[in-house]
Amino acid sequence: MKKNRLKKYFSNRNFTLGFIMVSILFLLMVVGFFYLPADPNKIDVLKELLPPSRENLLGTDQLGRDILSRVMVGSRISFFIGFCVVLCGGLLGCTLGGAAGYYGGKIDSIITKIIDTQMAFPGVLLALMLIAVFGNSVQNLILALSVMSVPRFARMSRSGFLKYRNSEFVKAAKVKGASDLRIMILHIFPNLLQELSVTATLSFSGAIMSEAGLSYLSLGIQPPTPSFGKMLSEAQNTILTAGWYVVIPAALITMLVLGFNLISDGLNEIYRH
Amino acid sequence: MNNTNKNVLKIDNLSICFDINGKKCHAIRDLNLTVNAGELVALVGESGCGKTLCASFSMGLGPQTASLEQGKILVNGQDMTQADDTAWNTIRGKDVSMIFQEPMTSLNPLMKVGRQIAENATNRGVSKAQAKEKALEMIRLAGLPDAHRIYECYPHQLSGGQRQRIMICLALINQPKLLIADEPTTALDVTIQAQVLEIIREMCTKTGTAVLIITHDLGVVSHLCDRTYVMYAGSIVESGPTAQIIQNPKHPYTRGLLACLPDISKKGQRLENIKHSVPPLEKRPEIGCIYANRCDECMDCCTQITPKRIVFGQREIACHKYTLDNLEE
Q1: Given A45, A118, B70, B120, which is the most exposed site by the fewest CB atoms within 10 A?
Q2: A137 in contact with B, Cβ within 8 Å
Q3: pLDDT digits over A53-106, tens only?
């Protein structure tokens, strides 16, 4: 039965394509934990902006650092932030949305209004504001991006809880004397996992993109820690002299974001039909 | 059991109304109903006459839009009229349980049925291993073969009849004092309706559970239940031992219902029906007999005076046609 399920997922072209893209970068990151071709932060002025060669597979940057090593380390940040944002945003969003959908009435209208207000606020601006107020650090970046992703999860889970709260099996669970919390977590939530997995992958790619954007503006990850966005902003000065340098982080961001979007599209198609 | 004479469910002068465009409309009016320990009781009536509403209120699951105007609901001797969810949760599943009409949707599609049955026991502090043992035992009692396989099944792998049996197991695992079965066989194939009813009866006799069966089918009631309540538009019109009601119906409504049943002796004839249908909530008269507009034997007083309940023997009836004197003849 398990084999069938895998087959169902991988017979979808979007999902397979996205999965391969994300897997390549994921593997690159995992390998980076055990082996790096060179020290990603070792500055060597003699090796400035070398094109790809046998020694530096993806060339070097303006300070002579090995780009491949920096990419391998930089992908950690992207995955880490994506994961944390989905976890925090998802947890908070599902809790809020779940409470709103399940209890309805006043609780629902209050939570919905808060979420709507948050949605009316431009996301990046909110993140900028949070970082400006609380300072520049990875935790604050995650906090800001999580807050941005809350509405998406909250709306999704609200509609799900709304759909199931009056269903017969929830009534049957009430008849068993199950508490509200138990019904919400054990009986309703598992039924929403499909829809939420689509939302989660979308959020993942959104978070990666926002992180790259903020780092590009020097508001996210601080040097010398490598990150895709930061590398992109460093590379733009040398765009004419060393074209490959700017292509690499840009291609990787695109690959990661596109990969997750394709997975999300694929999941959507798989669950729909 | 030491309290055999105790009522497990007593509904006393219950009135429930809905607010429709600012007007209070009674969905249930002055309803009296008792279920004694270990007894099988039927509540019979047409669609829309308030049977299910009555059952929901007996489980504390009444819709929020309905308001309780007067009366009392006593479950297992405990007054639950004003109880909140926390209070209900302590008796739901343990003392009272319920089976729904639609077995296809009343099980969680993502949880193994065995676990759903066992959950009801673990909710009450039984250990997981014991709960599983109990659940398997219940599955066997319900006449399902290969209990271990069924335990590991998801609802979509079972048929309607099997699922309804699972619901019965689920409801009875804690040996509740009262089981409310809301049209338990309506959604099932005719061929297994009788089986499922028989299982309800058998298992409840074993666990000493009293059953309130809600149905619109007098045929179901006739060979299963000890007592019957006939309900019309929110009120009980006639009640008493089932055999007496079937053989000697008094209220015109009960007679109408019985006449509607198909019978082999009526072969080739048109089936009887009762004219019109149950009036919608906002059109129900506040005084007089609610059945008057559909009654063939309607008299002048029927539309003006609300009939009182007359008690004679074990039966009760609310109709102007009868007085204590002409009933005893």
Answers
A1: A45
A2: no
A3: 777 777 777 777 888 888 888 888 889 999 999 999 999 999 999 999 999 889
Read off the pLDDT band of B328 (50, 70, 90). Answer: low
Enumerate residues 6+ apart whose C-beta is below 8 A from B17. Answer: B24, B25, B26, B27, B66, B67, B69
From CA A26, how far away is CA A255, in angstroms rounded?
Answer: 11
Residue A111 sits in a domain whose CATH number is 1.10.3720.10
Residue A217 included in any domain? yes
Rounded CA-CA distance B329/B327 in Å is 5
Name every chain B residue with its beta carbon within 8 A of the beta carbon of A168: 100, 102, 105-106
Is residue A73 situated within a structural domain? Answer: no
Q: Which of A169, A175, A186 sits opposite B93 (nearest CB)?
A: A175
Note the pLDDT tens digit of each residue in A211-232.
Answer: 888 888 887 777 778 888 888 8
Q: What is the pLDDT of residues B28-61, one digit of tens each?
A: 988 999 999 889 999 998 888 888 888 888 888 8
The answer to whether the CB atoms of B93 and A171 lie below 8 A apart is no
The answer to whether A59 and A52 have CB atoms below 8 angstroms apart is: yes
Torsion of CA A173, A176, A182, A187, to 10 degrees: -20
The shortest CB-CB distance from B108 to any of A177, A179, A187 is to A187
**B208 within a domain of the structure (yes/no):** yes
The model carries a pTM of 0.79
A184 part of a folded domain: yes
ipTM, two decimals, is 0.77
- B69 belongs to a structural domain: yes
User: Of A175, A182, A190, which is closest to B92 when you measure between CB atoms?
Assistant: A175
Note whether residue A115 is domain-resident. Answer: yes
Residues of chain A in contact with residue B102, where contact means CB-CB under 8 angstroms, are 168
Q: Report the domain count for chain B.
A: 1
In a domain, B1, yes or no: no
Q: Which residue of A has its CA nearest to B109?
A: A191
Residue B213: CATH number of its domain: 3.40.50.300
Residue of chain B nearest A189, judged by CA positions: B110
